[in-house]
Design brief:
- The complex is a heterodimer.
- By secondary structure, chain A is mainly β.
- Among the domains of chain A are: 116 residues, no CATH class; 103 residues, Immunoglobulin-like.
- The longest helix of chain A is centred in the first third of the chain and has 25 residues.
- Chain A starts with a helix and ends in a 5-residue tail after the last strand.
- In chain B, 47% of the residues lie in helices and 20% in strands.
- The longest helix of chain B has 28 residues.
- Classes of the chains: A mainly beta, B alpha+beta.
- At the A-B interface, helix 1 and strand 20 of A face helix 1, helix 2 and helix 4 of B.
């Protein structure tokens, strides 16, 4: 007869405990406080907050980046679990922009000596349209073209961008969308197309890009890869990156500290034999998801989900943490 | 004599069954105490949302512009889809200044929490507003 009450009490304790763990993860720096910047360091205590944060829920760009398994300096879930130090709890961390952005190619027409591509961009959150200012860049080899436009109150906007026919290869379109109601809400979308060439290969085919501590490490996947240009893009700025060091199959570039409330995207263009490429990485390296695979857990196991809005590099992101009993993922 | 004893035993067993059933009924229908940790989680989410909205002066600017629809939109983005909200903006005297409701659904009949936040505008003449955000889980 008392079972429902006892179960209820136990679950309530779990909720409170998981809530404290979620807050602890986002409000503390962990140890050492600069573990994000130390490429080979595994934290002894897990916390994602920036060491000199001006406000609560301000996360460190590098700590977040090291949660992304595509980065060569990333931490494994088992290392994060050990650092959290709570043996009977599994967790999952997901970080993404506050709203979604989708890109669709509407048409492409040859006009004089260039091909003009028309794109439609949709910005929304859970079906709610969001009015935004758009800053779009197209990158192909050494060619860069920028277009400024917007999405209206229905969250839809179109723009045209021209690429000269004198160049050919993989063209990368980057679209930054800044919500008109709050410039800290920025989302990012990418679209690759073959300009006067075959369809492009997936991102990270030729290089593995790993930003950390304001240095971009590019590991070349083939000895024949040649990089022609490295560039940085934000909502308001774009310029070339300066070369730091160059090894046999590794190149490093210095990344400047920018005050723009925007994700940073770095693009490397180059060739591998006769194939041109334009590959990119975001810094902080989001979207990401790491941790226990709760979707594959036994049905009926209790999972608590928390959603927080955080600040990373002056822009707002959404962090979803999931908490449950110990699973077999560690 | 033997028949009387038997009748008493039968009455006793009926009484025992009645006690067990009534206890089970009570356990099913008796309302459990409100889940305080869920309420705390909502309150914490509400405070964090208002803090986030105020970090770059957006909240104060929208209030000064009396742009109630944009305040609703920004709350729609920052709060999870399963949360109902109702926001009231009061001046220094506690009088509501928002001319239209800033809410995504009605909170009537729901277990709601309320958080209050004092917002100072970043205009040349600083104005103070008390922002009251009520939140409840949907469904």
């Amino acid at each position: 007869m008392m079972t429902p009450y006892l179960t209820d009490l136990a679950q309530r304790d779990d909720t409170g405990r998981f809530q404290h763990l979620a807050s602890h993860l986002l409000l503390t720096t962990g140890a050492p406080t600069n573990w994000g910047q130390l490429a080979s360091s595994v934290p002894s205590s897990l916390g994602l907050a920036k060491a000199s944060a001006l406000r609560p829920y301000e996360l460190d760009t590098d700590k977040v980046t090291r949660l992304n398994s595509e980065n060569i300096y990333s931490l494994a879930y088992s290392e994060l679990w050990q650092a959290l130090g709570v043996k009977d709890v599994s967790f999952q961390i997901e970080i993404r922009t506050l709203f979604q952005l989708s890109i669709e190619l509407l048409s492409n027409l040859t006009q004089g000596d260039q091909r003009v591509y028309e794109f439609e961009v949709t910005t929304s959150e859970s079906g709610l349209p969001i009015s935004t200012r758009l800053s779009s860049y197209v990158v192909l080899r050494d060619f860069v073209n920028e277009t400024v436009s917007s999405t209206s109150s229905d969250g839809v906007g179109t723009f045209e961008i021209g690429i000269p026919n004198s160049v050919n290869g993989t063209a990368l379109l980057l679209v930054f969308a800044q919500a008109t109601i709050n410039p800290q809400m920025v989302s990012l979308g990418t679209y690759s197309l073959g300009h006067n060439s075959d369809d492009p290969l997936p991102n990270a085919t030729f290089t593995r890009l790993s930003p950390l501590n304001y240095v971009l490490n590019a590991t070349l996947n083939y000895a024949t890869v040649e990089i022609s240009k490295a560039q940085i893009f934000t909502f308001s700025y774009n310029f070339s990156l300066s070369l730091n060091t160059q090894g046999a199959q590794t190149v490093e570039y210095s990344v400047p500290h920018l005050l723009d409330a925007s994700p940073i995207v770095m693009v490397l263009t180059g060739v591998n034999g006769s194939t041109s490429f334009a590959e990119f990485v975001a810094y902080p390296q989001t979207p990401l998801q790491i941790g226990a695979k709760f979707d594959e857990s036994i049905a009926g196991s209790r999972i608590i989900v928390y959603r927080h809005t955080v600040t990373i590099n002056s822009a707002l992101y959404e962090v979803v943490t999931k908490w449950g009993g110990l699973s077999g993922d560690v | 004599m033997f028949d009387r004893k038997g009748q008493i035993r039968i009455i006793e067993s009926f009484l025992a069954i009645a006690v067990v059933f009534s206890a089970m009924l009570v356990s099913v229908t008796f309302p459990s105490a409100p889940d305080l940790s869920k309420q705390k989680s909502l309150a914490s989410m509400g405070t964090q949302t208002l803090l986030t909205l105020d970090t770059n002066g957006t909240l104060g600017n929208l209030i000064l512009q009396q742009n109630w629809s944009d305040i609703k939109t920004v709350l729609d983005i920052l709060l999870p889809a399963g949360v109902s909200f109702n926001l009231t903006v009061c001046d220094e005297n506690g009088i509501a200044v928002n001319s239209e409701a800033i809410q995504n659904s009605n909170l009537l009949g729901r277990e709601a929490v309320s958080v209050q936040y004092v917002c100072a505008t970043r205009s040349q003449t600083v104005q103070f507003f008390v922002v009251r955000l009520q939140l409840a889980w949907m469904g």
